[in-house]
Amino acid sequence: MSEELACLDGSTAPAAETTIPVTDEGFLRGDGAFEVIRVYDGQPFALDEHFERMERSAANLRLPAPFPRKSYEREIPALLEARGGAGFDGCLRLVFTREGRRLAITEQAKLMEERVRLGFVTFAPTRVLDGVKSLSYAANMLCSRLARERGFDEALLVTPHGRVLEGPTSSLFWVDGSGTLCTPPLEDHILASITRAHLLNLVDVTERPVTTEELLGAQEAFMASTVREVQPVAAIEDREFGETGEMTRKVAAAFSAHVDDVLGRR
Ligand SMILES: Cc1ncc(COP(=O)(O)O)c(C=O)c1O
């Protein structure tokens, strides 16, 4: 495996040797913004949309302005080239901290379960962080751990009133009793996921809230994110979904063809 690299304020070095001062409140308080971008054969996917979301996050968090998009745009191609160019299939993590530090880190793509088993975890989104992908992800990470402690692969976040929201790092889609593909609305205070937005453009999807009870009666379900792409759900709590359904397979194929189209790979 080639070494992961980090570009901190324009200087590139092995990621494991790159350090930021302990006084940076991005570290001390999770006060900063981040993005994870999928890189296919050296090409970042949906980079502009990730910059736009990160710029919104930075503005909403009142991070130092202006957001350094131009510096990132200058540095990222060189970083990806140094990491292996077309030979690099993985992720790019961008971090912008309270102190104005600008980081870009290459990461190996995580190995995801082919089909995910989900357990409900009660969660109340922090309203003031609507529209912000902040570094404060401890609650999301804890939800994953709580679900794993109960024997599941991942958490499915549910409000105290029983509305199902999303995964800690992914969006939820399900096929309802009438065969309609659905996903929760952004008004439910979920992240404006970039994969979700692409899927809404690619296939017919109805945005509507869902209760735990209705979801357990769904025909199919899948999770979607930059890292997971379209990941079939095998089970939610003790509801087994059986073989991956036709809609999930169709959407997974459409998304992967779309990535190839956008990146000019076919
Ligand atoms: C809470 C949450 N929902 C959904 C997603 C999926 O977003 P995207 O498709 O932009 O990766 C993420 C990604 O990290 C997330 O953290």
Can you offer a commentary on this structure?
It contains seven helices and 14 strands. It is globular, with a radius of gyration of 19 Å. The chain folds into two domains: 5-108, D-amino Acid Aminotransferase, Chain A, domain 1 (2-Layer Sandwich), CATH 3.30.470.10; 116-262, Alpha-Beta Barrel (D-amino Acid Aminotransferase, Chain A, domain 2). β13 and β14 (239-240) form a beta hairpin. It has 266 residues and is of the alpha+beta class. The structure holds pyridoxal-5'-phosphate.
Q: Could you name the CATH homologous superfamily of the largest domain?
A: D-amino Acid Aminotransferase, subunit A, domain 2
The helix-and-strand class reads alpha+beta
Top CATH class of the largest domain: Alpha Beta
Biggest pleated sheet? 8 strands, mixed
What percent of residues are in strands?
25-35%
Give the CATH topology of the largest domain.
D-amino Acid Aminotransferase, Chain A, domain 2
Distance between the termini: 27 Å
H and E order: EEHEEHHEEEHEEEHEHEEEH
Instruction: Count all strands and give the number.
Output: 14
CATH architectural grouping of the largest domain: Alpha-Beta Barrel
Count of the domains:
2
Estimate the global geometry from the Cα principal axes: globular
Low-confidence stretches: none
Number of helices: 7
Global Rg: 19 Å
Mean pLDDT value? 97
- Distinct small-molecule ligands in the complex: pyridoxal-5'-phosphate
Oligomeric state, counting identical vs distinct chains: single chain
Helix content: 25-40%
